[in-house]
Amino acid sequence: MTPTEALAADTAVAPPRTVGFWHAFAFWLKLGFISFGGPAGQIAIMHQELVENRRWISERRFLHALNYCMVLPGPEAQQLATYIGWLMHRTWGGIVAGGLFVLPSLLILIALSWIYIALGDVPVVAGLFYGIKPAVTAIVVQAGHRIGSRALKNNLLWGIAAASFVAIFALSLPFPVIVAVAALVGYIGGRVTPERFKTGGGHGQADKSFGPALIDDDTPTPEHARFRWGRLARVIGVGALLWVVSMAVLVATWGWDHTLTQMGWFFTKAALLTFGGAYAVLPYVYQGAVDHYGWLTPVQMIDGLALGETTPGPLIMVVAFVGFVGGYVKVLFGSDAVFLAGALAATLVTWFTFLPSFLFILAGGPLVESTHNDLKFTAPLTAITAAVVGVILNLAVFFAYHVLWPKGFAGPFDVPSALIALGAALALFRFRRNVIEVIAVCGLVGLAVKILFQ
After folding, report:
1. For the purposes of burial, counting CB atoms within 10 Å of the CB of 256, is it exposed (0-12), middle (13-18) or buried (19 or more)?
2. Residue pair 58/216 in contact by the 8 Å Cβ criterion
3. SS3 content of the chain, % helix, strand, coil (to 5)
4. Which residues contact 326 (CB under 8 A, 6 or more apart)?
5. pLDDT tens-digit profile of 343-400?
6. CA angle, 50 as apex, 275 and 154 as ends, to 5°?
7. What is the number of alpha carbons within 13 Å of residue 350 lying toward its C-beta?
8. pTM
9. What are the pLDDT digits (tens) for 301-330?
């Protein structure tokens, strides 16, 4: 080996330098604008950027944090970003990472919601959506493949994933039940056959591929991330105080029965039921927002879901659309301030939806950090990750059905959508194009199909 080759080899395996707060800030801001593809796609993007490319965190530590976020109610990808930001740069690092994961999506959805409700059905937008939906389907499939290839290290974990898919697809079991059963299987399996439930089995290969990380497997837990009962009490107290003050301001200003106050209360409850991601809680949101409160119509709810699927950020950000339309059509501040009413309502429901997510990470993170080498904690979480792979596969099937048979199996098969989905899959799997490029090209193709053939 020549001196130049030796220097290159040493550089390749050297751990990255310490990452400054503002350097991380720039990355989290970028992530907020490129986090397409739902939780599966967003987690895959973070893995590629943080584990493979930048090596800010090792695969084992990444998966351990992901396992914890999978168990929590709330958007797991946003919580994972919060967790890693907190681990790197304390509380403000977590707030910035989680906040910037949501903020671009909120601003984009406020703008799109206003265009949607004020300008009606725009053919150009409909054409773009026609091409983007098949692309999103391919993105979810590709992301599920990436997560599965990392998490499913043996036949037992493959079996858990398959059983999870059957349970949610064929038996319609609630996601919390699937999580509980998987955790029990992992707990028992960790005692009976512990080698099959070690997080990141095959991690040695990951080390060879990515090199040492800034937060590596053997990196000591930083002082701020060590568990202390006093710190836990403070975090819970601050979180509870923020919620109480927010609700108190709404009640004092407008009263309990006002639309904004009811939105705050309703989306607080929704935030605590989002086990398994947005699709697990959408029926609850639909029932409350459409049937009970009448904030929007069924058709508007479906269109809002399409907007949520095709914008960056967590899919649960569809709540911002619900809030905007509800505030807009209820004319909360008079006919001259309908945009203000919609924007305020969208911001308000986003606050109440995501406040618990920050609390779960900042309060529970130190406990999780104290268990990343303890098999009795990691084995159930490993099994849960395997089960979630099955749930992601179910999500891909759900997308494919609604994209390829938009009128149900009794209706025609949508050949152009199938071709767009196939092209997107080839771009992602074969040519390894990034998500932004795939979505942009597929959107333009969809627009061209609508213009030329309809």
Report:
1. exposed
2. yes
3. 80, 0, 20
4. 259, 263, 289, 293, 295, 296, 342, 345
5. 999 999 999 999 999 999 999 888 878 766 566 666 887 888 788 788 778 877 877 8
6. 60
7. 27
8. 0.72
9. 767 776 776 688 887 888 999 999 999 988
